Amino acid sequence: MEGLQIVWFKRDLRIVDHRPLVQAQLHGPVLPLAIVEPQLWQQGDCSARQWSFCAESLEELRISLADLGQPLVVRIGAAVDVLERARRHFAITGLWSHEETGNGWTYARDRAVAQWAKGCAIPWHEIPQFGVVRRLPSRNGWAGRWEGRMAEPVAPAPQTLQPIVGIDPGPIPIAADLGLTPDPCPGRQRGGRQEGLALLESFLIARGACYHRELSSPRTAFESCSRLSPHLAWGTLSMREVVQHSRRCRDALQTRSSQERGQWLRALRGFEARLHWHCHFIQKLESQPD
Length: 290
Fold this sequence. Notes:
Blueprint: E1 4-9, H1 19-24, E2 30-36, H2 38-41, H3 48-68, E3 73-76, H4 79-89, E4 92-98, H5 104-119, E5 124-127, H6 142-151, H7 193-205, H8 211-214, H9 221-224, H10 229-234, H11 239-251, H12 258-287
Helix pairs in contact: 11-12
């Protein structure tokens, strides 16, 4: 297939507000690819329960992409090896992904992928995912940049994707396949965009009313906090859509009683401040990893 565009799904497991996907499909047929890297999952900050969340998110993403015409392709192995095998089978003219600020292992992997892409003359288009700015000379004015990015329109999912005939989507491995130690957690959160949307809705409609008072206590935070952290970490929801949804709810408070309006205003302002801090501290990691 000529002019194939690979969209590499990393920590952005959704089709809504996914700008690499939107941009790639304007340049040719899209191969949506997730690379499961066993070496990554053997790092000290990974666990079986995290993989279970990721695997559930991949399953739902595969269905969403299949509804557009081309299901998610999953391959297991080192990223450069997987991409090189794809290059040998297809005429790839573009690699697309979101920027990622991860740990030292993912940074080294991305440098290796960049070197591979340059050597193969394949442009790698990395698009910012939230408020983090690469190669930022100074954090002066960073807050304004964050506000600007959060105000940008949420990109809708593509209407269709051209099917790629004859390619096996591949299995989504279980934790044991990655050598992960059993890590049972009956109360863990489930992955997938629909779970994230349900949490966001329940928080902004009911659970979050006392967020500003109850976010710090283990006795109350379980219900009063948003519980969106894993969904933001794995990108089943985008930071932009969460911020905008919260602000729409804040704007709609005019219909509430003065007491209820005051309580929700404090709660939502506190929530939005912590969404801002989420990106602020990742920016510190991006700019000053020491």
